[in-house]
Design brief:
The complex is a heterodimer of chains A (106) and B (275). Chain A is mainly beta and 106 residues long. Chain A is 11% helix and 46% strand. Chain A has a single domain (2-105), classed as Immunoglobulin-like. Chain A has one helix spanning 2-13, and strands at residues 23-28, 31-33, 36-39, 45-51, 57-61, 66-70, 75-80, 86-92, 100-105. In chain A, the strands form two sheets. In chain A, strands 3-9-8-5-6 form a five-stranded mixed beta sheet, with no helix packed on it. In chain A, strand 1 and strand 2 form a beta hairpin. The termini of chain A are far apart. Chain B has 275 residues and is mainly α. Chain B has one domain (2-272). Chain B is globular. The chains are: A mainly beta (106), B mainly alpha (275). Chains A and B meet through helix 1, strand 6 and strand 7 of A and helix 3, helix 4, helix 5 and helix 7 of B.
């Protein structure tokens, strides 16, 4: 519990400096909606990933160095960037044949 | 079936490689089987627990519960690995000498078994919770032929365990007098890799700055999606596109532990040589 409290305190100390617009990705039938997301380059953004399926998914990206489980019917947030302009692929680790998408920073 | 085999194999391999190193590092210490098995059992229990409340964990602490939890257990593992490395540089030589004297080896080794048991539990918990979630999803979904997918998953577990066992046997081929320095080096690099992952996670929830999202990109040479890439990710913290903070944490941990082990080892030398 102490560790959690300490970490929570740390989280509060860190001043967020990211774009305000909420970016939302939905997962439905093991596909991302939208599967292409544009974000401003060189800006930190907050991304919400919402899982509308009844099974868990893992939001993962080698390009972005992110890996986070999204439980069935729940949502997570990830901070991304600041990114140099370019394409960054992401996928759903548990359903890679369908759950694919790309973030475009420009 | 092949897809599920690969996913499960990858996760089991990552945990298995760490357990393989733990087993090699505790080679010759009586009672280690029980400690390592205990670590695996604790890890599996934890994995099932974490998987069953994955949703609640994600929502906790304003949506960063998952990361904070992972950072906490990674921090615990880094501490235990670091402690083991420093402790071994002090006692490793004695242990190698006392190997025939089983009684002494037990007395010397038992303290570090606890640390290694914790490391085992953390490794199994981390990768295991993903396997549980994945297999649970398969079992729940219909029409996909869940039985063949489940069979693939089981085959993945078996294959992962076999590969880890191969690593363990490979390490044991190293002559005993060198084994401790090799496993100690592996333990230190393992700790550095975990510290890097923890730093990267803290950057992903905006607690730490990223210090550059992509210091280099070596995906073309060694992709993290490849099996070798995944294995190196688990063993040395390899990242094809590391962030600055990840790299910094890796270097700091490696340097600190290597220096500390060396200092402690030197301190002991005059006494150790007169055994």
């Amino acid at each position: 519990m102490k560790r959690f409290a300490f970490a929570a305190a740390l989280a509060m100390l860190a001043a967020p400096a990211f774009a305000d617009d909420p970016l939302v990705l939905s997962i439905k039938d093991h596909r991302f909606q939208p599967d292409r997301l544009e974000i401003p380059a060189d800006t930190k953004v907050k991304l919400t990933v919402r899982n509308l399926d009844s099974t868990a998914e893992e939001f993962e990206s080698y390009d972005l160095n992110r890996e986070k489980v999204v439980a069935a019917g729940s949502e997570i947030t990830v901070f991304i960037g600041p990114l140099a302009a370019g394409n960054y692929k992401f996928f759903g680790d548990f359903h890679q044949d369908t759950a694919q998408g790309v973030i475009v920073a420009r | 079936m092949l897809a599920s085999l690969l996913i499960v194999f990858r996760e089991v391999l990552e945990a298995g490689l760490i357990v393989g190193i733990v087993l090699a590092a505790s080679n010759g210490v009586a009672g280690r089987g029980r400690w390592v098995a205990g670590g695996i059992a604790a890890g599996l229990t934890g994995a099932a627990l974490v998987a069953s409340c994955a949703g609640a964990l994600s929502q906790a602490l304003d949506g960063v519960g998952q990361e904070i939890f992972t950072v906490a257990i990674l921090g615990l593992a880094v501490t235990m690995l670091g402690w083991h490395a420093v402790w071994m540089s002090r006692h490793g030589r004695e242990m190698a000498e006392a190997m025939k004297d089983v009684g002494r080896a037990v007395a010397a080794g038992e303290k570090s078994l606890f640390a290694l048991s914790v490391v085992t539990a953390v490794a199994v918990l981390r990768e295991g919770s993903e396997v549980v979630l994945f297999l649970y999803g398969i079992a729940k979904s219909t029409g996909d032929g869940p039985l063949s997918l489940l069979a693939g998953g089981m085959a993945g577990v078996a294959l992962g365990v076999a590969t880890a066992f191969a690593l363990y046997r490979g390490l044991l081929a190293i002559p005993t007098r060198h084994l401790f320095s090799v496993t100690n080096g592996l333990v230190i690099v393992l700790a550095a890799g975990m510290a890097g992952q923890a730093a990267s996670l803290l950057a992903s929830i905006d607690v730490l700055p990223s210090w550059g999202e992509r210091i280099w990109n070596s995906s073309a040479i060694l992709s993290e999606q490849s099996l070798l890439g995944r294995a190196l990710h688990a063993l040395v913290g390899y990242s094809a596109q590391p962030s600055g903070i990840q790299l910094a944490a890796w270097i700091v941990t490696l340097t600190a532990l290597a220096t500390l082990s060396r200092l402690v080892g030197q301190q002991r030398r005059p006494l150790g040589s007169s055994h």
